[in-house]
């Protein structure tokens, strides 16, 4: 049965058109499939990028110590053994603080300032030092200055008494820092007296008596100061007599010159002893033939005792012979004689005891060592006698003068008995003169002497 309504050719056109539509419909289908595949691949990539295989960003650089800053940058220590703490801050290349970084501390001069492992610096001496803190290959530094500042001044002796116009005593000032360490030797002191009518003081601490009373002598260094009290108690004028008195001779060898200080110091010592004996004897004392020694020029040289070949007794006789033309002798009824020889002697030994520095039978003879001691120059003495105080030499004269008056050593002392009265003037108490004394039996002997009267 044939179709009706369309011619043959029309049916053919319709078939072709149908076929074309199918092909046309199929081509878009193929495009849609390609797009889908691409989309799926993209989704897979997104899924993979969010999984365990993700790519990490580049790590930050490791911190490296780049700078070290020490605080404080400088410090001044004003006392020895004073301490100061320094700290060090380490920063990396980004300027960040590197806490806990090990620090090595060092000093450029440990004799000035030492530093420990925690940055504590301790002063040791005046000067400067650089303190360094090191972390790895970098370091920082701070400057330390040690400059002692006087915190206290002590004056010695802290008290003294002068007993004649023009008498003097040298005071010594010592400066210390806040930790009690002696300040530098170059410390300059300013000396002052509270009453110059009583005692004046020079720039070196030499105090000179000017009148009765008491004065405070002050030494200042910066804001610190120390003081001593000096009393001036003027003794009565020396008691003189033409006879029954103590007469002194200053014996000068032919190769030596007269020294005024020797003469003056002997006269002053005798005056002091005259007053001291009066205090010990309840108003009795000896008279002086003169306030100054007689000068006796010798024909021998100052080494005549050193080269003398004889024993101690023979050398004593030789010394007395050398000065006999000027009057000294044993057991003179008119005078007790004191002779000071400006001569040398070797140190005392058992084999060769010294000649001078002895007394007895109305005569005592002493040597150059005593002259140097009386003039405050005992630092130059040999044989261990250097540096002894002035009073020891005045007391030594008082001891030998006691022998000349007839006083013996205290009982038992020469035998070193435990009952020896060691502190008495007539044993070793003379070394602490005027803080010594006459024993009761010694005072009884002197009361019977024609040379002691109430004066």
Describe this structure in words.
This protein has 455 residues and is of the alpha+beta class. Helices cover 23% and strands 27% of the residues. It contains six helices and 25 strands. The protein has helices spanning 8-49, 260-280, 312-323, 368-374, 390-404, 440-447, and strands spanning 67-71, 74-77, 83-85, 87-91, 104-107, 113-115, 120-123, 127-135, 138-146, 152-156, 159-162, 168-170, 172-176, 190-193, 199-201, 206-209, 213-221, 224-232, 245-252, 284-285, 294-297, 335-341, 358-360, 363-366, 453-454. The strands form eight sheets. It has a five-stranded mixed sheet. β15 (199-201) and β16 (206-209) form a beta hairpin. It is elongated. The N and C termini lie far apart (195 Å). The model is unreliable at 1-33 and 43-51 (pLDDT under 50).
């Amino acid at each position: 049965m044939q179709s009706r309504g369309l011619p043959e050719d029309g049916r053919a056109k319709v078939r072709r058109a149908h076929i074309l539509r199918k092909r046309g419909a199929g081509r878009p289908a193929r495009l849609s499939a390609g797009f889908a595949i691409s989309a799926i691949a993209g989704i897979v990539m997104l899924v993979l990028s969010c999984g365990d295989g993700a790519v990490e960003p580049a790590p930050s650089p490791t911190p490296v110590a780049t700078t070290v800053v020490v605080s404080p940058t400088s410090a001044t220590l004003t006392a020895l053994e004073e301490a100061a703490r320094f700290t060090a801050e380490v920063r990396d290349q980004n300027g960040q603080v590197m806490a806990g970084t090990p620090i090595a501390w060092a000093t450029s001069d440990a004799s000035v300032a030492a530093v420990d492992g925690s940055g504590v610096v301790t002063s040791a001496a005046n000067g400067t030092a650089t303190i360094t803190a090191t972390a790895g290959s970098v370091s920082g530094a701070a400057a330390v200055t040690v400059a002692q500042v006087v915190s206290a001044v002590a004056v010695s002796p802290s008290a003294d008494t002068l007993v004649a116009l023009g008498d003097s005593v040298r005071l010594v000032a010592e400066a210390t820092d806040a930790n009690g360490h002696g300040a530098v030797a170059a410390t300059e002191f300013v000396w002052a007296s509270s009453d110059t009518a009583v005692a004046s003081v020079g720039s070196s601490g030499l105090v000179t008596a000017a009148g009765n009373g008491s004065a405070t002598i002050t030494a200042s260094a910066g804001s610190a100061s120390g003081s001593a009290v000096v009393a001036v108690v003027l003794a009565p004028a020396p008691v003189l007599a033409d006879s029954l008195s103590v007469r002194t001779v200053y014996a000068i060898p032919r190769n030596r010159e007269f020294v005024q200080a020797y003469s003056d110091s002997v006269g002053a010592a005798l005056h002091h002893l005259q007053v001291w004996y009066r205090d010990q004897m309840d108003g009795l004392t000896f008279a002086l033939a003169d306030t100054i020694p007689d000068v006796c020029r010798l024909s021998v040289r100052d080494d005549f005792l050193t080269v003398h070949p004889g024993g101690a007794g023979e050398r004593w006789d030789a010394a007395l012979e050398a000065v006999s033309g000027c009057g000294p002798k044993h057991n003179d009824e008119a005078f007790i004689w004191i002779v000071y020889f400006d001569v040398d002697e070797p140190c005392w030994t058992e084999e060769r005891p010294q000649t001078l520095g002895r007394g007895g039978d109305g005569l005592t003879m002493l040597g150059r060592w005593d002259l140097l001691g009386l003039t405050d120059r005992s630092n130059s003495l040999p044989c261990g006698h250097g540096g002894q105080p002035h009073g020891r030499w005045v007391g030594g004269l008082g001891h030998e003068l006691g022998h000349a008056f007839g006083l013996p050593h205290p009982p038992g002392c020469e035998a070193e008995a435990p009952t020896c009265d060691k502190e008495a003037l007539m044993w070793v108490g003379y070394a602490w003169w005027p803080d010594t004394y006459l024993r009761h039996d010694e005072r009884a002997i002197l009361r019977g002497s024609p040379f002691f009267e109430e004066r």
